[in-house]
Known about the structure:
By secondary structure, the chain is an alpha+beta fold. The protein has 7 helices and 8 strands, in the order αααααββββββαββα. Strands 4-3-2-1-5 form a 5-stranded antiparallel sheet. Helix 2 runs antiparallel to helix 3 (60-85). The chain is elongated. The termini are far apart.
Amino acid sequence: MPETKDIHTAEQILNALIQYCVKYSFQIIGAIVLFVAGWVIAGRLSALVVGVCARKKMDLVLVQFLGGLIKVLTLTIFAVIALDALGINISPFIAAIGACAFGLTLALKGPLSNYGAGVAIIFTRPFTVGNTITTGSHSGIVEDVKLANTVLITCDGERITIPNRQIVGETIVNSYANKIVEGKVGVAYDTDPGKAIEVVTRALENAAGVVQDPKPQVGIDAFGDSALVIGYRYWTPSKGCHIVRYAANLGVYKGLKSAGIEIPFQRQDVYLFEDKKPPQKRSRKV
């Protein structure tokens, strides 16, 4: 009967499992104890490394990466020891893992290059979380640095996710926590330039959000057709930089108006000349 054969097969499998557990019970218990011990040791060792690095005030991303790497390596070592305690030959597993890794490397060349670039960013640290960077056509505050990508937040609150391979090898402009803002304003040529520079400097010093260390820079930027152009540059926190820029421009305008300094507008004079010559007589031959 088919049912009798199935029952007999199940009994044989169960008996084999019981005999294996009885024969290798100590190895199984030892392997479980080793794996649990490895889990506990990996967690504590990772926490220890994170704590030491945090006290040394190392970069947060680098600390998290080192903690995770220590934990994975420790677990791998204890897993190998546990398998060896069970009497399992791990050579075929290592060969299979190597073959799978080679295949994945070819299939995931792009994503894996992002991970390699992420490791390079974490260890070389051209920027850290909270810095304001510009790379390629993207600019913003670094919110997170992952192995695969870097996340930026723009002044408008937009979230930009950049693959790390597009960052490594490219030009990176790091202005750290602040962003530099530039502006220009024209004053009449009969204005004392020193007074105009003083008024603009005072307006920037009183503007909320303008960083005073380093000091704002103010000076003659250009000689326009109808105005003397005063240029000014200052640092401001990247978050909300547009609000600070608008407030600073308003302060500059009000300061110049209060000081009686004219802000000219471009104009063009057109002169019309009337031709007063009498019309010439023409002779006609008959």
